[in-house]
Amino acid sequence: MNTTIKKTAVALSLLAAGIAAGWAFSQWQAARSATSTTMSVGQEERKPLYWYDPMVPTQKFDKPGKSPFMDMQLVPKFAGEDTGDAPGVSVSPQALQSLGLRVATVERATVGASIDAVGSLQLNDRDVSIVQARSAGFVERVYARAPGDVLQAGAPLADLLLPEWVAAQREFLAVKALNEPLLTQAARQRLGLLGMSESLISQVERSGQTTGTVTVRAPSSGLLAELMVRQGMTVTPGMSLARINGLGSIWLEAAVPEAQAGAVQPGQAAEARLSAFPGEVFRGRVAAVLPESSRETRTLRVRIELPNPQQRLKAGMFAQVALNGPRSESLVVPAEAIIRTGKRAIAYVVDAPGRYRPVDVEIGQELGDRMIVRRGLEAGQQVVASAQFLIDSEASLQGLTPAAVGAPGAVSASSPAAQVREVVHSTTGTITALTDDSVTLQHAAVPTLQWPAMTMGFKVLDPKLKAGLQPRQIVQFSFIQQGDDYVVTAIKPADPVGGKP
User: Fold this and answer.
1) CA 288 to chain centre
2) Of the candidates 476, 478, 470, which has an alpha carbon nearest to the alpha carbon of residue 501?
3) What was the pLDDT predicted at 419?
4) Which of 144, 192, 224, 339 could form an S-S bond across to 346 if both were Cys, CB 3.0 to 4.6 Å?
5) Contact criterion met (CB below 8 Å) for 105 and 337
6) How confident is the model over 59-91, as pLDDT tens digits?
7) Does any domain span residue 129?
8) Domain residues for 483?
């Protein structure tokens, strides 16, 4: 009896435990189902619409992976990222954080057109003296001179014997003895025309003795660049005997980049620093901007004249040059904040955290890591200084341009008003697939969008447009952009003379 009662109690206990375990299991399953549902809803809310390559934003992909165009991963495009009435581009905080986006403030600063360049010193070719023989003769003596010597004015170079001078002096003395003033004056002038100095003529007149030997002297101080006379040689009238380069000033020829040469003007102040004289600054002026650019280095030669009173500056020395222009107040931004496409310059202004607007700007000179902005921005505005490629690709996806954003009454690209004003693009293509509301086309390049030839899907505005069309058929079609979709508005078979895209 007791055994039966015990067995019954145990059975009841096991049954109760089973009921409790079943109830707990059912509650756990319900909670798990609810959690799964919540997670799936959250995931569905953040489910990407498509993936794209930021460098080719018009091409869409239905799954993640590596871009076929660039060596980078495709970026997801989520719904609801570009909402709001204000024109601009919205980028998710996750994308911005992963890219390390930075912003900079547009500043008003006093800047000058300072250009740094390099150059070398050269002799001043405007300060050159040529020593020539005035009459035919012979070289009796050459003084101890050699090219490269620095001479003082009046230093002797060579002694010349000039027989023609002796004959002219004798004629002068004979005419003078006739006491005919007019004839004497004419004979005296003839001596001067032969190249005799006034002091030599006076000496002959006083002494009554002829002299046919003359000492050729340096007419000015400077560097003896060439000495073309040797003892015993014959000289002829007009023959060059020596060339002397003055050293009172020296030229510094600097190579200025072609892009900065427009800011250099004759008379502009210049500063030169040489490693031979550390800590010293030599100041001069731009003498000329030579009219020919180097085809190899794309630089212009700028000639700077430097005073050289102590003759410390030597030809061939290397120098660092700073060309300083007038200073003025200008708006400046980091140079990396400007996107230059070749036809225009664009900056992205921060309208709000995570929202950016493209603006056409007119840029000026680049000053190191900063850029002068002449028009398009205002002091105090913030602009994107890095990761512009992502924001620019988002703007391309939305069809936003600086002209559209800056126009009066501009609206968001996703609004109905913007869709009404969409530009119609036309090209040719080959049908690769047809569905109820779309068509896939292998189309030719689209010049109005700067698209290359590619294969992509289009929505069809009216299903009746597909009537009579078949795959592999060559067609002419027009389309517009509506939000993130490209919609065919007209399509017809191509002319028989047309070629494949």
Assistant:
1) 24
2) 476
3) 40
4) 339
5) no
6) 778 888 887 766 677 877 765 554 444 566 776
7) no
8) 422-493
